[in-house]
Specification:
The protein is an all-alpha fold. 81% of the residues lie in helices and 0% in strands. It contains 19 helices and no strands.
Length: 377
């Protein structure tokens, strides 16, 4: 793999850390801000909506820019959003920071599309899994460390660390990336043509449904795990780290399986496993080992979906890959927002322990989109 892909993975580690670190510390954050935990969960909604709306717009506006400038813009916006979030003493200001961070998430789509131009078509799955490896590692590193720091020293502490890391990523990109590289430009006309393909629409729909399912639980993962099993902040950090490591393994496995078996079979198997794990998770209440095993399998299946989904879009329309991947990220974050809102609205009536059952029907619906692609493959 080209060495620059590992730098992109490191930057995605920073992006993932900043985006999701708050999910493990919603309780201390809500307590300090004087808000309900469901309201605190909407920091993910703000980030998700901003990413869904602003990131594709920025991808289109920067289509003819050299890749270095577009990447600098994304990292700059993300760093600015982190700084605003770290300085926040109210929910309103925190949400503003999260919107800036969501706009900066254009970085992820930009580097994914760039990455597949650097390798042979047979290696696209592994190239994408390498780039997104940083996002998976963020769950293994940022969530547990952020949870421990947040409970011990206040929720601002991990946010300040994410702000410093995002500034460091921006400076490193400014030094390391070559100047003048321009990938195939995403045009509005070309995008319209690609978006009319039913196969492209199904990829986006599948991503939307999958992330509604996942974030029905994951947006409140800290409180959910504490409701399933009583544990100390240190033990919670360990469990989150195990989940994140499973995600790292799943990301690598997903890239390998995409190149070996093709994206559709990989997607079908992973969605089927994810659906089963979501059904099982509420049944593990009071059984810590069972909870951990379920989370490990969940993490491997869920994180492994990124490479085959992105790879399918690149295969369907290589020239429009930046815009298609960005819109796929929009579906990702739209699903994140919807899942957060749906589960937030049902916490009081369903309970934190049963949120897996709220998301399971969406995972099943995502799985049922695959046969339509198979019949036309």
């Amino acid at each position: 793999m080209p060495r620059i892909l590992y730098f992109f993975a490191l930057c995605n580690l920073v992006i993932g850390s900043g985006a999701f670190v708050l999910t493990g510390i919603l309780q201390p954050m809500a307590l300090e801000l004087g808000i309900h935990i469901a309201a605190a969960g909407q920091v993910m909604t703000a980030y998700a909506v901003a990413t869904a709306v602003l990131a594709p717009l920025l991808i289109l506006l920067t289509a003819k820019w050299p890749r270095k400038r577009a990447i600098q813009l994304g990292l700059g916006l993300f760093a600015a959003g982190n700084l605003v979030s770290a300085l926040s003493a109210s929910l309103a200001l925190l949400l503003m920071g999260r919107v800036l961070m969501g706009a900066g998430a254009m970085f992820t789509a930009a580097v994914a599309a760039y990455a597949v131009t650097l390798v042979a078509p047979a290696l696209r799955g592994r190239a994408l899994s390498t780039v997104f490896l940083g996002m998976s590692i963020s769950y293994a590193v940022a969530l547990p460390i952020g949870a421990w720091l947040g409970f011990e020293y206040g929720w601002h502490t991990p946010v300040w660390l994410c702000a410093a890391a995002s500034l460091a990523a921006l400076l490193a990109a400014s030094v390391l990336l070559p100047k003048g590289v321009v990938t195939e430009s995403a045009s509005l006309a070309g995008f319209r043509s690609a978006a009319r393909q039913s196969a492209v629409l199904r990829v986006w729909l599948r991503t939307l449904l999958f992330f509604i399912a996942v974030f029905s639980v994951f947006a409140y993962v800290g409180p959910v795990l504490l409701a399933l099993n009583a544990m100390s902040p240190a033990l919670l950090s360990v469990v989150l780290a195990i989940f994140g490591l499973a995600g790292v393994a799943g990301t690598l496995l997903g890239g390998w399986a995409t190149d070996r078996f093709g994206p559709l079979l990989t997607i079908a198997v992973q969605l089927g496993v994810l659906f089963i794990m979501m059904c099982l998770l509420p049944l593990t209440q009071g059984h810590l080992i069972a909870t951990i095993v379920t989370l490990v399998v969940w993490g491997m299946a869920g994180f492994g979906l990124t490479a085959p989904q992105q790879g399918r879009l690149v295969h369907l329309s290589p020239a429009q890959a930046p815009m298609l991947i960005s819109l796929n990220s929009s579906m990702l974050y739209a699903g994140t927002a919807i899942g957060t809102v749906v589960s937030g609205a049902l916490i009081e009536s369903v309970g934190l322990t049963r949120l897996g059952w709220v998301g399971a029907p969406f995972a099943l619906a995502a799985l049922l989109t695959v046969p339509f692609d198979w019949s036309r493959h």
